[in-house]
Design goal:
With 409 residues, the protein is an alpha/beta fold. The chain has two domains: 20-286, HUPs (Rossmann fold, 3-Layer(aba) Sandwich); 300-405, Anticodon-binding domain of a subclass of class I aminoacyl-tRNA synthetases (Four Helix Bundle (Hemerythrin (Met), subunit A), Up-down Bundle), CATH 1.20.120.640. The chain has 13 helices and 14 strands. The protein has helices spanning 53-71, 87-96, 100-117, 129-145, 174-183, 224-235, 250-265, 297-302, 307-315, 327-344, 353-364, 369-385, 393-405, and strands spanning 20-23, 28-31, 37-42, 75-82, 125-128, 149-152, 155-158, 200-204, 220-222, 240-246, 271-277, 280-282, 285-286, 323-324. The strands form four sheets. It has a five-stranded parallel β-sheet with strand order 5-4-3-10-11, sandwiched between helices. A four-stranded antiparallel β-sheet has the order 6-7-8-9. β12 and β13 form a beta hairpin. The radius of gyration is 22 Å and the shape is globular. The model has no long low-confidence stretch (mean pLDDT 96).
């Protein structure tokens, strides 16, 4: 599976700062110190309702992570998956009377178009669950051989008790885990499981559903968590720098994935930092496919909204915050974009050296994009009210906003 084209990231004078970021697993801020190549895995979409603003907010957060690292003169090895076979996708295809593979391809292509328009830097590897199956099957067989997996009526489950570190990503109690498991694709009430929280590794073939050769596992398809583990371990290895996604992935997805990987390799932790973006609401409720209260990037673009304004609307909120999409949020972003573009279109302006430092410091401080935007706003007001004599300043501001915030002026 291919990703989308990369937009050019302008080079800036000087060098960025190391990223201090909130780690869900420790509950505090840590300073990331990757090697020459920073490694990040971000969980991708299940392609049946792409791309809504909640998606865009999540990928915007991890796009900023990449930009901060690039500004420190590191390379970035970014991997993202596409869950192109899963129950919600199959259910949507059946509801709409379409082929599930066609639906997945259509929505994945729309996602690519939206990511390109929003200037999100693409992953080096963009891997679908289906194409990852040949690498998933041996991992499930190995877990079984290690005594960390068991069969139940043809299905294969992971035993959470096999990982002594289970629970150290989310730090939830068993009752909260069981509730979230039921809400987010698990089956805690299924009779015969060793532990209600045990997740599916391999689902045996069902009538009318797609299935693949699972070797000694029999025909079937992979569970959700092992998909990401197989892809991450194959391309990044253990101990990569950031595992990213929305806050709704903390449990069960990232908790279970960490346990799978840790049992498979005997190493801990799977990732040095678990980083999660907040949820976006609409009309007072979390934006979600099940509720149908979605605002789509593609629809905004068709309505003539500049993708740079959409990006500014996302950047106006701290990545970890839960927030609400409104018409006013978008209008504020459109207005801000107009002011910024007018300011950098002038032949000269106030010195921009301090501004670049402010943007760098804001982003290094747990991706504080609102503070970065406020710094650009201050420079813009000075430009509008007083002007300046530095002929290079507007160009530096334009390049800095593009390189560090992904906004083309």
């Amino acid at each position: 599976m291919h990703a989308w084209p990369a937009s050019e990231v302008p080079a800036l004078p000087g060098q960025g700062r190391d990223l201090r970021i909130h780690d869900t697993a420790t509950g505090g801020s840590i300073t990331l110190d990757p090697g020459p190549v920073a490694r990040i895995y971000v969980c991708g979409i299940t392609p049946y309702d792409a791309t809504h603003i909640g998606h865009a907010a999540t990928y915007n957060a991890f796009d900023l992570v990449q930009r901060v690292w690039l500004d420190t003169k590191r390379q970035v090895h970014y991997v993202q998956n596409v869950t192109d076979v899963d129950d919600p996708l199959l259910e949507r295809a059946e509801r709409d009377g379409v082929d599930w593979t066609a639906l997945a391809e259509q929505e994945t292509e729309l996602f690519r178009e939206d990511m390109t328009a929003l200037r999100m830097l693409p992953p080096r590897q963009y891997i679908g669950a289906v194409e990852a199956i040949p690498g998933i099957v041996p991992l499930v067989e190995r877990l079984r051989d290690l005594g960390a997996a068991y069969e139940l009526e043809g299905d294969t489950y992971f035993s959470v008790e096999a990982d002594p570190h289970f629970g150290q990503v989310s730090h939830l109690d068993a009752a909260a885990m069981r509730l979230l498991s039921a809400e987010r694709g698990g089956d805690p009430d299924r009779p015969g499981k060793k532990n209600p929280l045990d997740p599916m590794l391999w689902s045996a073939a069902r009538e009318g559903e797609p299935s693949w050769d699972g070797g000694s596992l029999g025909r079937g398809r992979p569970g959700w968590h092992i998909e990401c583990v197989a892809i991450a371990l194959d391309h990044l290895g253990m101990g990569f720098d950031v595992q990213g996604g929305g806050s709704d992935l903390v449990f069960p997805h990232h908790e279970m994935g960490a346990s799978h990987a840790q049992v498979l390799t005997g190493e801990f932790p799977m990732a040095k930092a678990y980083v999660h973006a907040g949820m976006v609401a609409l009309h007072g409720e979390k934006m979600s496919k099940s509720k149908g209260n979605l605002v789509f990037v593609s629809r905004l673009r068709r309505d003539g909204v500049d993708p740079a304004a959409i990006r500014l609307a996302l950047l106006a909120h701290h990545y970890r915050a839960d927030w609400e999409w409104t018409d006013q949020v978008l209008q504020d972003a459109v207005t801000r974009l107009g002011h910024w573009r007018a300011a950098v279109s002038r032949p000269d302006g106030p010195s921009a050296e301090a501004l670049v430092d402010e943007i760098r410091e804001a982003l290094a401080n747990d991706l504080d994009a609102p503070a970065a935007l406020a710094a650009v706003d201050r420079w813009t007001v000075t430009q509008e009210q007083q002007g300046g004599t530095d002929a290079g300043a507007p160009g530096i501001v334009s390049r800095a906003v593009d390189a560090l915030l992904g906004v083309a002026l």
